Each structure stands twice: as C-alpha cells, then as structure tokens.
Amino acid sequence: MQITANQIKKNIIYARIDELDEEILDILAYDLHVDWYDYTYPIEVKRATIKDSVKVHRKLGTKYAVETALGNVFPGTKVSEWFQYGGDPYMFKVNIGITETGVTVEKQAAVLERVRFYKNLRSHLEAISYKVEKKAVVNVAAVHSIGTRLAICPYLARGIESGGGVTYGGFTKCASTVEVYPNIG
Q1: CA-to-CA distance for 67 and 118, rounded, in angstroms?
Q2: Residue boundaries of the structural domains of the chain
C-alpha cells in the first residue's frame, strides 16, 4: 500500500514542479507546448514559465499573455496599450526591466518573437524599451553658519534688529533610457 501511495505522488507532476529536476522540466515544457520555453533558462525561470503556461495559453492574444510570457524571463515587464500613453489605435509598447538579467542580441530577438506570438493579431508593436535601474547610496552633508558681528563703541545705538530666513532644498536623479524599435515589416 505504501509503494502505491508513493507511485501516485510521482504521477502528480504539475503540483510537484518545484521538486522536479531540470531534465524532467524540459520534457514537461515540451509536452505542455510551452512555446516560449528556453532550455538555457535557469531552473527557477523554467519552473515559473511552466507554472504560468496554462494561464498564458488560455489568455493568448491579450496583454496578460505578453506580460506573463516575458515577465518570467524579465521580471517587471509591462505592456502599455495605445490609450494608456496617447498613441495611435491598436498600438502598444513593451517596457522591460533588465536590471537583474541584462540583455543580449539573442534575448532581444527572443523578446520580439514572443511578443509577435502572444499579442493579438490586430495590435501592432510600436516600441520596446529596456530599463536599467541602478541603486546607490548618496551621502550628502551641508554646513551653514550665520553670524553677526557687532562692534559697540562708546555710542550706544538703540533698536538694532537682526532677522532672516533661509530655505534650502535639493534633488538629483540620474536616468538613462535606451529604446530599441523593432523592424516591423
């Protein structure tokens, strides 16, 4: 009876994706027709991609499908539709955060291929933006000194007043944007 229970557990594959080794994940991705699956992905990306595959196939041709298919590889991917940024009807932009993963020519080609596969047919890709964020600690210090020097001679002046106000502020932001426009043809 114990042997049968263990064999049943092994047959429940989808619920055990986090326990499966890489070779089984590759086979499972092929069997589930995970079209955007890449055998070179790290194992955690492979697991996330397989887990989301059923939802993506159900929502094929939607913003959700494009964001999810790309988001497993590039976390934080956002799709902006034409009415969200004031573009022409049925156009959209893809904004991809590459801070953690970086981007290569091969990845750019894969992004374009996946977008074309998962978008709806009436919509057209206007631009792909890659965003890199750099977090740094900025130390700022300031010293301000105000003083008054008053020399009192034998003559005593009356009603001497001193006043003033000082307001300081500062802001800095560094950003770099690279936009790669696809060859849509």
Answers
A1: 9
A2: 2-136+170-180
Pairing of strands 78-81, 124-131: unpaired
Q: Helix, strand, or coil here: 165?
A: coil
Is residue 87 within 8 A of residue 94, CB to CB? The reply is: no
CA separation, residue 150 to residues 68, 156, 163 (Å):
71, 11, 14
- Report which residue type is found at 45: V
Listed residue (27, 78, 35) closest to 54, CA to CA: 35
Amino acid making up residue 161: E
The three-point CA angle 34-38-41 to 5° equals 125
Looking at residue 88, what is its pLDDT?
Answer: 94
pLDDT band (50, 70, 90) for residue 145: low
Q: pLDDT at residue 184 above 60?
A: no
